[in-house]
Design brief:
CATH topology of the largest domain: Leucine-rich repeat, LRR (right-handed beta-alpha superhelix)
Structural class: alpha/beta
Number of strands: 8
Order of helices and strands: HHHEHEHEHEHEHEHEHE
Shape: elongated
Number of domains: 2
Length: 253
């Protein structure tokens, strides 16, 4: 097969499938998988949960990044991101603009604070379903993380931090994440699935992120926008007015 046909096949495969299967078909497929850095410019290693206990996902992720020959601009990994991998990624992907870590553990606050400074071009960041990654006992990111992000990634425009499910309907000081996100003034899109922020926290984000165009707060059930908030005030109505400028909006329900 000609090279462009082989690459057309590869572009329809998950990068794990390329590394573990397509790479072993024949010598021409192996050369295409190893000698075409453009194939690894945007690496996605999601799904394949059934393989997570049988393969070294972080080793495979390092192999994928190495094949990009310094051209990797985006990495999305599930079960494939600890401090050692982030260090390797910073060394091998100096042009990285998008980093999405899903169900990844093993990074302390000090390690993150040091490593995130190695990605000054970062425009997109996701830290989702990572119960042991940089979070305190309430499930929120440590406040220091947002301070570090603000200094290290001034070009950050897209932020995702999702939980698997909403834990508890409660009111109180649940806006630690919202207060930190409100300092990300350049945000264009924000996704906070199953976060416990309240109306106050959401209002702070809307007031301080004037360029926000996409907002996803599904399953954020402490946010009340139905017009009949407890206490009989107009908080929900005011929030709906603030959200009117958002082009893509997904509400708690």
């Amino acid at each position: 097969m000609p090279l462009d046909a082989i690459l057309a096949v590869f572009h329809k495969l998950d990068h794990i499938d390329i590394l573990m299967a397509a790479d072993q078909v024949c010598s021409s497929w192996r050369r295409a998988a190893r000698d075409e850095p453009a194939l690894w410019r945007r690496i996605v290693m999601r799904g394949n949960a059934d393989l997570s206990s049988r393969i070294n996902r972080q080793g495979i992720a390092c192999d994928a990044v190495r094949r990009s020959a310094g051209q990797c601009e985006a990495f999305c990994g599930e079960y494939a991101g600890d401090a050692g991998f982030l260090l390797y990624l910073s060394e091998e992907a100096p042009c990285l603009k998008s980093l999405r870590l899903i169900s990844c553990d093993g990074i302390s606050l000090d390690e993150f604070a040091e490593l995130i400074t190695r990605f000054p071009l970062l425009e997109e960041l996701e830290l989702s379903e990572c119960p042991e990654l940089l979070v305190d006992c309430s499930g929120s990111l440590y406040p220091e993380v947002y301070e570090v992000l603000g200094r290290a990634c001034p070009q950050l425009k897209h932020f995702r931090m999702n939980k698997q499910y909403f834990q508890e309907q409660k009111w109180g000081n649940n806006d630690a994440d919202a207060e930190g996100i409100a300092a990300m003034h350049e945000l264009r899109s924000l996704q906070l699935v199953a976060n416990d922020l309240t109306n106050k926290g959401l209002a702070a984000i809307l007031d301080n992120c004037p360029r926000l165009e996409s907002l996803d707060i599904r399953h954020c059930f402490n946010v009340k926008m139905d017009g009949d908030d407890s206490g009989g005030n107009d908080e929900g109505t005011l929030l709906r007015e603030k959200c009117a400028r958002i082009k893509t909006l997904r509400l708690p329900s």
